[in-house]
């Protein structure tokens, strides 16, 4: 998960390896670095601390890896947690990352679409590696952000 807390900083949490750091790095710096562990002002969030962030988060981006059905199941677990503990007006996005690995795909795109639709989430498949849909992801998030009160 990538949380956007007010005033819009990133907090990263949930399961590792799906590409959260790479997505943020691609968006913020236009780079993809498969080897180095990057930090882009994102702090790691442990499961025990997650509920503290749910409440303050304006946006939660739940990321899974399209080559990993296990990561898709875990993403669904996080969506349920957010529905239980998050603020009622939280903007939620479901992201199937590593879309460049089509030959290794194990989660059909339709499964992502269906799950997101059932849960009132915005859905997109991305590749941090090729930059495919990364800008679109953040643009769609920006469109859905609550307007700051005057
Ligand atoms: P995080 O733990 O969720 O933050 O995951 P990382 O951003 O550290 O990425 C985990 C691994 O997946 C790294 O080896 C990345 O190189 C790789 N990775 C991330 N995004 C992509 C992608 O879009 N395509 C491919 N092929 N690999 C990716």
From TrEMBL:
Keywords: Nucleotide-binding
Pfam families assigned to the protein according to its UniProt record, in alphabetical order: Ras, Roc
Cross-referenced SMART domains: RAB, RAS, RHO
First and last residue of the signal peptide: none
Name the record gives this protein: Uncharacterized protein
UniProt organism field: Rehmannia glutinosa (Chinese foxglove)
